[in-house]
């Protein structure tokens, strides 16, 4: 367990990470462009250093939690990183992670890439997930310290872009669901039904919805698109109903319009009698 860490970035997430580390007796150096954001951590015992070179020199492990990889590269530009361990917890793409790793390794430091799949208030809980990828030895060496930040740590493999890929895939799934829910909320409003009730009922259905997503993943993994319980054609008809109701209810319909446009591509390709998962063949 590493007891001496420098934390770079004190936004909403970085500040929470800093509090967790200090409260768990980690010797913490912090750096941020504006000192005001460090005041709470200073009061808890963290050491604020205004000079980035000194902040990097203070600790063997550097934890980055800034807006993106570009900001990380800008902050670390020209600094001596020899012998350091750099742990990235900023947002980006797999290509960002690969570029960052190449740069860090060339400068004589070890590198681990990570993504936080939670909001600041959820940090420090046993179920909070952080995914990591890249150097497994670095992950194992820092695992006990990182568990202070989140109880559910997952090592996603040696390909350094894997964690970012997982993050983007889960974000795509999450936002797809959210936009579907937003359209559902407009349906409820148009019909004078409680939107809050829709949220509550959807929550109770989450195990069923999760099984459906899991089945689609297995279909794609095994190229199993025939013998559907609900064909692509039936799914397209459901989107036609959504579009028709939008017209009847005076609702703007970008969500069903997009879905139907995609499903019509599947129909045109001859996949109407296959499973919805057959749409992956259109998207490849």
Automatic annotation (TrEMBL):
Q: Which InterPro entries match?
A: 6PGD_dom2, 6PGDH_NADP-bd, HIBADH-related_NP60_sf, NAD(P)-bd_dom_sf, RedAm-like_C
Example GO biological process:
transcription elongation-coupled chromatin remodeling
Q: Which GO terms describe its molecular function?
A: DNA binding; NADP binding; nucleosome binding
| Domain spans labelled NADPH-dependent reductive aminase-like C-terminal | 161-284
What are the 6-phosphogluconate dehydrogenase NADP-binding domain coordinates in residue numbering?
4-157
Annotated Gene Ontology cellular component terms: chromatin
UniProt cross-references to PANTHER family, sorted A to Z: CYTOKINE-LIKE NUCLEAR FACTOR N-PAC, OXIDOREDUCTASE GLYR1-RELATED
- For this entry, the protein name equals 3-hydroxyisobutyrate dehydrogenase-like beta-hydroxyacid dehydrogenase
Organism, as annotated: Chitinophaga dinghuensis
